[in-house]
Amino acid sequence: MSLKVKDFYQFLESLAPLRIAEKKDINGLQLGSFEAEVSGIILAINPILQVFKEAVKKGCNLIITHHPLFYQPLYSINQEESPGKLIYFAIENKLNLLSWHTPLDKVPFGVSEALAKALNLETSDFIIEEEGYGYGKVVNLKKCVKLEALAKKVKKILKSWVMLVGDPEKEIEKVALCGGSGGFLKDYLKKKGINTLITSDVKYHQALSALEEGFNFILIDHGIAESFVLEVLKEKIENFIRERKEDLKIYVYKEESPYKIV
């Protein structure tokens, strides 16, 4: 019996339950039908037109993204503009879209843990934890390292841009990371005696206050930071498909950073 979209929805729910999603977060079926039989799967961070076209090219009719297509209510759908262009393309090509956002941030194997493993960093606790789920991870540094040296290591591994907030020569004893937008975690970390966070999308005033307080940020691209969880998810979905004795192709779509450093 062929696997349907609803089977993958239920599997994702078993991995990262929707009950742990942030309030107002959007997850689950975004486009398509639960009853559609799945011909192949594309995993991506963002629901963008290039991903949709790649799905058609590879004969896949299920797209699973981390970020949802719909954040706010739609009051019109214009075929010439996003997201209308994506919606029309998906309908015309009978594509189905599932999005799994903050639940995938909060599970132990999720976004932050996948990033840590990519950076060859060992982790212990969540930065914020509740009932076995949480945001970010505390890193177990084996020895002190200068802020700039750690940033250069991150840049080399990610092959992407890196920015610093703090003194490059500062000796770092304790560090944490958060694959998504983690500026809000600064005060939680200070209470834990941790003064450095690897994360994305820190706002100007968050950076300014951190500088004045002696707190350090190593800033990396949001999409690249979160992309490592896709390989983890791919492996888990492949195991699920094998257990169901089905044969479906599954691909990971890798995006480049939208930012270009001049």
Could you explain the architecture of this structure?
With 262 residues, this protein is an alpha/beta fold. It has 2 domains: 5-104 and 226-251, NIF3 (NGG1p interacting factor 3)-like (Udp-n-acetylmuramoylalanyl-d-glutamate--2,6- Diaminopimelate Ligase, Chain: A, domain 1); 107-220, Udp-n-acetylmuramoylalanyl-d-glutamate--2,6- Diaminopimelate Ligase, Chain: A, domain 1 (3-Layer(aba) Sandwich). The chain has helices spanning 5-15, 49-57, 84-92, 102-106, 111-118, 147-158, 186-191, 204-213, 222-227, 229-243; strands at 28-31, 41-44, 62-65, 96-99, 123-130, 133-139, 145-146, 162-165, 171-172, 175-181, 196-200, 216-220, 250-252. The longest helix has 15 residues, at 229-243. It starts with a helix and ends in a 10-residue tail after the last strand. 35% of the residues lie in helices and 23% in strands. It contains 10 helices and 13 strands. The model has no long low-confidence stretch (mean pLDDT 95). Helix 8 (204-213) links the parallel strand 11 (196-200) and strand 12 (216-220).
